[in-house]
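#struct-pred
JK: can someone run the complex with 6-O-phosphono-beta-D-fructofuranose? inputs below
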Amino acid sequence: MHKGKKRIGLLTSGGDCAGLNAAIRAVVHRAVEGQGWQVVGLHKGTAGLLSRPPEAETLTPHRFEGMLLRMAGTILGTTNKGDPFAFPYPDGTVRDRSDEIIEGFRALELDGLIGIGGDGSLSILRRLAQQGGIPLIGIPKTIDNDVVGTEVAIGHATALWVATDALDRLQPTAASHDRVMVLEVMGRDAGHIALSAGISGGADVIIIPELPYRIEGIAGKINALRAEDRNFALVVVAEAVRREDGTPVVQGHSDSGQALYGGVGHYIGRRIAETTGAEVRVTVLGHVQRGGTPTPRDRLMASIFGVHAVDLLAAGQSDRMVAWSGRNVVDLPLAEVVDRPHRVDPQGALVHTARGLGIYVGEDPS
Ligand code: F6P
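RT: done, structure tokens with the ligand placed:
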């Protein structure tokens, strides 16, 4: 253990999103100015800890005086591949490299770690922290908003804004050409982005993985709109929705075996054209949902989470995640969070709202 100032590590892990730099800024301010600690920014998630010397930089509040609060991405870099417990090699083999990461952490003489990540990253960080005896606090981030135990994860609000903005842009062109516009959005196995953007952006149909759909149900809604003299329709599809026969639409798999979604919008669009005769166009929104200027909500949550994470470490807490619940910042054990993604509740308020607006949101599963 080093003597002198306490030093904490800070990393971003998993897919990037808007608001990460705001969270980094909040941690640095609170730790350096509030506690007198040093903050070491670890590069590329845990991947930078595999290099020798470990890839890292000391972060000071001065660094954040300019544009960083307003910028998406992460100044620390990130990775969503290469699970350290099953690290993939080009020859197809995997090896456990967790000890190397822990050695890298020790080489930097760190007293604690704040990890900003989604469900999968927090699970890996927790295992590393337990193995290495490292005090760890997690901050939830993901555009998918599927982290359990918190109403909000950093990045979701901006992704929702981007998806809603896409619908705002698709509506006039749909109406001008008498078309059905299909918008495919991200979200991994959860339909939060699709459902919220669909409601906010005036969609007529929203298809999410949590609710079964029938092409006849979608066609019935589009035909009902035509009968009311509406000449266009907006359809939102979440990327993990499956074909009618239950098969997923994937572009391949990541190194860690996760499905790389993308393309189900084209399948749904083709089926709509076949069953209704409508002219259909498809937009796959993709990674633009991860960028853009972070919304005030994402900057706010990032700031609240960053300050609270440092306060928890300062109070000697570990193995906890900061969260937003009931208009307040709270924290809960990471054990209650990891490996159980939060998906759309088919009986919840948003599905009820969508149905109340006359949106076709799939079939009632009961
Ligand atoms: O988890 C965030 C997310 O953007 C998902 O919505 C999407 O399925 C995935 O990451 C895409 O990952 P990648 O950046 O590896 O293409």
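RT: quick notes.
The first helix runs from residue 20 to 35.
The first strand starts at residue 7 and ends at 12.
JK: thanks, will look after standup
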